[in-house]
């Protein structure tokens, strides 16, 4: 069985799930505080993961538990920093700057894990970055919002590297459950200053539950499993399909229309994906080894 190829397809499904949330979230946040929404979303996901497979976390080793806490804190802080950055910049610029994790991932992996990043990986990263820029940018000034969002991109890159180094097929569910609990705690701390509120109508509850279960719990399980079979750079490039899917869903179900920018930017990101899959495999598989447990 070709586990790396299946893992890439799984990450594409995750990117599609994340992409489907943009137009839903944009509407929901007109009626709900950001921190309240994040805390509720991840709380629901945590409860469901624990109920589905209660022994999963108990079976984690002490080392895996420490790693799960570290990964959860990293992701939770990234969510809060990204959201705060979004208050000070446009959604399109935020999407581009957040997507810069595709650049930070190989850079940080090279520094932290001391592995050489191959030529094919850099070509794919460059294509994906240009594609993100074409999709998202309509001018870019470097202010508070952009700096905060750039920091969140670095944190997302660290999370991708950590999952790539520490996840295994056997610990994927337990590691996902523990991460989700920690992410909930981090987001809940962010919600404390303004008080906590929940949706006041059934439609908003349906949106929150969908994003908690499909784009939250299920997506994190799939990402954790997939990254047990992929290098961090290959995973990051696969996940840059998120804004492409977001644009497609906005066209299909929202008010957006097909534009030249959408077609060109999407084609560049998809080209990066194909390059990853068609390039000499050894160039990617040797990039970052999973750390011993």
UniProtKB/TrEMBL annotation:
Keyword Ribonucleoprotein annotated: no
Chief location category: membrane
EamA domain location: 6-136, 145-276
Membrane-spanning ranges: 35-53, 93-113, 120-141, 147-166, 178-199, 205-223, 235-253, 259-276
Gene Ontology CC, one term: plasma membrane
Keyword hit for Transmembrane helix: yes
Subcellular location: Cell membrane
Similarity comment: Belongs to the EamA transporter family.
Protein name: Threonine/homoserine efflux transporter RhtA
Organism: Kribbella caucasensis
